[in-house]
Amino acid sequence: MGNGLSDHRSLLPSFKALHIVILGLDCAGKTTVLYRLRFNEFVNTVPTKGFNTEKIKVSVGGSRRTAAFHFWDVGGQEKLRPLWRSYTRCADGIVFVVDSVDAERVEEAKTELHKITRLAENQGVPVLVVANKQDLRNSLSLAEMESMLALGELSNSTPWHLQPACAIIGEGLQEGTTKTRAGPEATRELLRAA
C-alpha cells in the first residue's frame, strides 16, 4: 500500500541526523515503536506527558552505510496535539502510529493525520502510517485502515506508506521504513532503515 512512490535510491549524508517525528493518538504505541527501534526489545512504557527523544544510527538499505535519525516521540493526548506542529517544523519525516484495534478512534486519528499533513510546512514530508497491533485478533485490515484514514485523500505532495506492524515484537517496523520515500529528491531514502 502506498501512493506509487519510486524505488530509486539516493545518497544520504552520514553526518546529518534526520529529524523524524512519531505522532498518533494516545495509547497507539508510539513510545513502544521508538524503543523497539532504539533497543530492538520491548520496553514497558507509560503514557507520554511531553516527548521522548532518541538518536539512532541505522544501516541504510542493508549496506554498510549508516544514517543517523533523531526521533521525537510526542505525546498524543488531546491537550498535547496543538504542540505537534512545533515538532514537525523542519521534519524530514513523520511516523504516524494508529491503533488497529481501536476502530472507534480511527476517525479521530484520521482528523489529526490530515490536519498535520495539510500544514504548509509539512507539504512534501513523507509519512509512514504504522497500523500497530496487527497481531491482535480484532485488528482492522490494511484495506479498512487505508479507507477509514482516507489516505488516498492526502495531498499528492505527501508521500505515504501504510505498514502493518506489531511494535511489541517489532514485526513490520523494519519493512515499513524501507518502503517510504521522502519527498523532493534529496531525502528519498530518509525512512529507509529506521
From TrEMBL:
The keyword ATP-binding does not apply. Transmembrane segments: none annotated. GTP binds at residues 24-31, 76, 132-135. Mg(2+) binds at residues 31, 48. Coiled coil: none annotated. GO terms for molecular function: GTP binding; GTPase activity; metal ion binding. Keywords: GTP-binding, Lipoprotein, Magnesium, Metal-binding, Myristate, Nucleotide-binding. The keyword Transmembrane helix does not apply. It holds the Pfam family Arf. Signal peptide: none annotated. May play a role in apoptosis. May act as a tumor suppressor. This is ADP-ribosylation factor-like protein 11. It comes from Scophthalmus maximus (Turbot).
